[in-house]
């Protein structure tokens, strides 16, 4: 494992595979990162996230609880995932929400998929094997394997 430890926050419950490379200003807790994966600067990966082998997560990306990346996935810069369909800061009683006040909705990115820079991936979807998501896209529904989608909302452009 190659890390710039002086500038990273890696919790003791993080599981790192062999050959993982982590760059400065990264925050990791409660997650698993598979062998030979690379995590760029200014990335946060939250608890319960599973990153497969040989993934590349570019700088400024955010992987929230509920996200699974299978092997060989590419995330461009500033890719953001969402895990709550109806986010609120407070509960019905007016107090700040806690984990008891919402349900984490999982998202799966299948093997070999590529997500372009500044894409936003809504929760509860699956992006199929080898799919390509265009930069700046907002993905609101499942993406079939071997397809290219782009736009807001993301729409099918062609098959790979």
Characterization of this structure:
The chain is mainly β. The protein has a single domain (2-84, 101-159), classed as UDP N-Acetylglucosamine Acyltransferase, domain 1, CATH 2.160.10. It is built from no helices and 22 strands. A nine-stranded mixed β-sheet has the order 1-4-7-10-13-16-19-21-22, with no helix packed on it. A hairpin with a 2-residue loop joins β21 and β22. The model has no long low-confidence stretch (mean pLDDT 95).
Key features?
160 residues, mainly beta, UDP N-Acetylglucosamine Acyltransferase, domain 1, 9-stranded mixed sheet, 6-stranded parallel sheet, 22 strands, 0% helix, globular
Annotated CATH architecture: 3 Solenoid
Order of helices and strands: EEEEEEEEEEEEEEEEEEEEEE
Low-confidence stretches: none
Percent of residues in β-strands: 25-35%
Helix fraction, binned, reads under 10%
Report the CATH superfamily.
Hexapeptide repeat proteins
| Whole-angstrom Rg | 16 Å
Instruction: Write out the strand line-up for the largest beta sheet, numbering strands in chain order.
Output: 1-4-7-10-13-16-19-21-22
Q: Indicate the overall shape.
A: globular
Distance separating the two termini = 34 Å
From the helix content, strand content and strand pairing, which structural class follows? mainly beta
Largest sheet: 9 strands, mixed
Number of domains: 1
User: What is the CATH domain class?
Assistant: Mainly Beta
């Amino acid at each position: 494992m190659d890390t710039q430890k002086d500038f990273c926050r890696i919790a003791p419950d993080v599981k790192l595979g062999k050959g993982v490379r982590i760059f400065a200003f990264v925050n990791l807790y409660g997650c698993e990162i598979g062998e030979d994966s690379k995590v760029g600067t200014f990335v946060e990966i939250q608890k319960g996230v599973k990153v497969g082998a040989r993934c590349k997560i570019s700088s400024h990306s955010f992987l929230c609880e509920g996200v699974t990346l299978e092997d060989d996935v590419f995330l461009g810069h500033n890719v953001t995932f969402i895990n709550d369909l109806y986010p609120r800061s407070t509960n019905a009683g007016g107090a700040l929400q806690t984990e008891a006040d919402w349900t984490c909705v999982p998202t799966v990115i299948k093997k070999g998929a590529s997500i372009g820079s500044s894409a936003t991936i809504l929760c509860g979807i699956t992006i199929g094997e080898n799919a390509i998501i265009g930069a700046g896209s907002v993905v609101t529904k499942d993406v079939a394997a071997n397809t290219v989608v782009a736009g807001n909302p993301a729409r099918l452009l062609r098959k790979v």
